[in-house]
Design a protein that fits this description.
single chain, 193 residues, alpha/beta, 5 helices, binds inosinic acid
Amino acid sequence: MEIIFATNNAHKLSEVNAILGEGYTLRTPRDFDITEDIPETQQTLEGNARQKARYLYDRTGRDCFADDTGLEVEALDGAPGVRSARYAGDQHDFDANNVLLMKNMEGKENRRARFRTVICLILGGEEHLFEGIVEGEIIATMRGTEGFGYDPLFIPEHTGRTFAEMPPEEKNHISHRGRAVEKLAAYLHSINK
Ligand code: IMP
């Protein structure tokens, strides 16, 4: 089965490829001459995932999916949430985002947070949503050098280490994105038996 994934990020592509397994060929927007940034202007992760998947479907008429992820911090009323990539500004700077998060969490007793990924699959024109969540907490200072984004500040529950202190396979196994993709894969396998 051939399916388009709304990403140009080689790392995400190989991660999803590994979870889907044999029998699926992932294509990217570039394979269909879609080189512009796909719009994501909605106020929710669900809205953005649907917007990106719809955009691809409208342009290609093919089966496709898109994901959107956010870090939701309880003490910050769910921020940075859908604005995770540009929390500290439109330059999408991971370090600046982490510095701002540490500042906004100063003195907060409730450190609970979660990463949430939403995937929107469009199959034969019909939409299906899948969600993956990992619960954890935000620490006061950054630890670790693996991963990206907020990984140095996030400790998934029951692990005692930040995502940035874990080898990629260990993170992928328990991560929000990994869990959402597992659900997508289970659904695709169930209909392609
Ligand atoms: P995207 O929807 O996958 O592009 O993620 C949006 C933003 O959420 C990224 O720019 C990162 O700031 C953050 N983010 C997403 N996934 C992760 C992760 O696995 N670790 C740390 N930060 C992440």
